[in-house]
Amino acid sequence: MRYLSWAYLLALFAFILLPVVTLVIFSFQDGRLPVPPFKGATLDWYREILTDRALMEALANSLIVALLSALVALTLGFLAASGLARVALPGSVVMRGLLIAPMTVSYLIIALGLLQMFNKVGIRPSLLATGIGHVVINLPLCFAILYAAIGEHQKSALKAARDLGAKEWQVLWFVAAPMLTPALAAAFFLAFTFSWDEFIIAFLLTRFDVTLPVEIWSMLRSGLSPATNAVGSLVFLVSVIVVVALELTLFRKGSK
Amino acid sequence: MVAPALLWTLAFFVVPFAAMVMMSLAHMEGRDIVQGHDLGNYLKIFTDPSLRRGIFVSLEITVVVTLISVLLAWPLAWIIATRVPPRWRRMALLLAVLPFWTSYVVRSYSWALVLGERGVVMNALVGLGLLAEPVQIMATRAATVIGFVHFFVMLLTLTIYSNLIQLSPNYARAAEDLGASRWQVIRLVILPLTLPGVMTGAFLTFVLCIGDYITPQILGGNNELSLPQLIMLQLGRRGDFPMASALSVVLMVIVTLAYAGCARWLKMERL
């Protein structure tokens, strides 16, 4: 049983890590194809992609869209969660349901709906359109995380602040936000990552200025290339750094 | 305070969705969209062999992927939660889901790299003499399934693991004291208690898998089209928004039915 467990663990780890390890190794391939045999290491492909203007612009676009859409989703989600936690209104179950609803719908469907509506009202495919779509998919997430984080203890603190005469914005800024910092950080981080990595909405709702996943997608059409490996490896490296940093700081206290 | 979020959801989710349902009742005349109120598109989906095939292809792939992923992920989560020493546990979990955090498009590309005719896997199999010559996996359903299973094993490991570590060890101890074998403890005690984690993960797998365009497009190719690929095809080649919308509504109905099917096990907030 014991050896079987370790063998299973190793086999699954090999399966899970195989594509990523292959990706990274062949990003250093000194040759035109990222497949065996490995012909020796070079950094040429990294040099090539770091000086590729279209790619770097897409990277900047992705950062801007992810940052802004995550901030908007976080703000709207925070306001909604604080509002719904304040009093139990008769319609609050319906409102909660409505806010969560986009979570159960495929991104493709959300993208298609937005594309049609934007066509009709004359909003051109753009980074703005993509950002709006990303807020739609991330708002339910931010709302759910923050709403779950407001327990009885937080509710009474908010009520106490109001009873003591704090204005509503003061309650939110000086009481709610500091109390909910870990949840706010987690929600922001998740929303940022989802937007950063999102493909189908960005694919349908951008045209000239594209985000990084869309740019990578168009690189794929020219077949396998170590340059694509290099981009993928860099994106992977950034995600790993962020996840490990969060693991070491934010989630360490909360973990069991 | 709830108003901004509600307005946003109404304007950019409910309204577009309603517009899409309306659009599904329209049809194409030449290159123009003619608004109508007929179910012609839906009728066509269920009579046209290539469209109907897409629904079955998607359902088959999704069911197979969900089953394989659960079967692979459960033992992995269990080993990490119970067999790995506590101080290495977080580390093992982090490692097991590391590629989960990389770009989705890049992950599919990596599999194309690995599974290709000249890729690492074929090289190894031919090199070891297990295969006389490379077998084509790329651009087949097998490639799509492998790519999907890779992603969803990680997702399910997360949901099942977080379920497992919340279980008190007393359940297993009590069962052992009462004479259950180790296998009986797992099968009759632990397994049923992890049903919420399994079902939550399986539902997420189902929803994300059936709605995904990237993996079947990169790995499965164009030999056999899934529902999302058909939707994109309507948009791209013909600008047939009405048919794309009708297919999306069908996709939506399938997801809703799946939700209804496992709703009683879904306890999202516990994870």
TrEMBL record, chain A:
A cellular component annotation (GO) from this entry: plasma membrane
Keyword tRNA processing: no
SUPFAM superfamilies (alphabetical): MetI-like (SSF161098)
Domain ABC transmembrane type-1: 59-247
Domain of life of the organism encoding this protein: Bacteria
Membrane topology of this protein: Multi-pass membrane protein
An individual GO BP term: transmembrane transport
One Pfam family linked to the record: BPD_transp_1
Keywords recorded for this protein, A-Z: Cell membrane, Membrane, Transmembrane, Transmembrane helix, Transport
Residues spanning the membrane: 6-28, 58-81, 93-115, 127-150, 170-192, 230-251
UniProt keyword Transmembrane present: yes
Localization: Cell membrane
Annotated family: Belongs to the binding-protein-dependent transport system permease family. CysTW subfamily.
Protein name: Probable permease of ABC transporter
Species in which this protein is naturally found: Salipiger bermudensis (strain DSM 26914 / JCM 13377 / KCTC 12554 / HTCC2601)
